[in-house]
Design goal:
The chain has 203 residues and is mostly beta strands. Strands 5, 6, 7, 8, 11, 14 and 15 form a 7-stranded antiparallel β-sheet that branches. The two termini are 51 Å apart.
């Protein structure tokens, strides 16, 4: 018999990162971020927000992800982020840093979200994040976003919370997956028997 490696879909890895609280009473207050991934590489960011039981029209949540852990290759104003996951009311998008700005990522089929009374949950596959095996990340929440007379976003009355706090770097997370070996039967065709060669004796 032979054995083939097959990935299991069970959760393989999880870690919780805490943030300071109460910095700005007007901002969506991040208390912690729980990050996990399953064995297919689907990464889940659970952003716990203590004072926003629903995602209102004036809010957004952004997860900045440095997928190569190299601050020189991504957004210099976001600790080298190569991607950003942006959750707006009713939708989530994945953007990739192109050297000067963020543009739509070429693939984001794995990206989904949900929001409940405890905060936001955003999911993205490692394959859509450049095949990352380890990442640094930070989270930004903002509320109070308005619209100006030209229809553009107006941040003049906005309030935000960053995790980690500004000036405190980023969080680090390793994407760990597991391979499970399962036995697979292998059938082979029997080899034909070879008749022994007779030794001829000449008298």
């Amino acid at each position: 018999p032979s054995a083939l490696a097959r990935g299991s879909a069970a959760q393989a890895n999880s870690q919780t990162f805490t943030d300071s609280t109460g910095e700005n009473a007007n901002a969506p207050d991040i208390t912690s971020i729980a990050v996990s991934n399953d064995d297919s590489g689907l990464i889940t960011f659970k952003v716990n927000i203590s004072n926003r039981p629903s995602l209102t029209d004036d809010m957004f949540v952004a997860v900045y992800v440095d997928t190569d852990k190299n601050t020189s290759t991504g957004d210099p104003q976001a600790a080298g982020a190569d991607y950003v996951l942006e959750l707006d009311p009713g939708s989530v998008s994945l953007f990739k840093w192109n050297g000067s700005d963020y543009a739509d990522a070429p693939s984001q089929t794995s990206v989904t979200f949900s929001y409940d009374s405890t905060g936001a949950t955003i999911r993205a596959g490692a394959a859509d994040l450049g095949g990352t095996k380890g990442l640094n990340f930070s989270v930004l929440t903002i509320s109070g976003i308005g619209t100006d007379s030209s229809g553009n976003a107006d941040f003049s009355k906005a309030a935000g919370d960053a995790a980690p706090d500004l000036g405190h770097g980023t969080y680090a997370y390793d994407v760990l997956t597991k391979l499970t070996l399962s036995a697979v039967s292998l059938t082979t065709t029997p080899k034909p028997a070879v008749a022994p060669v007779a030794e001829t004796v000449v008298a």
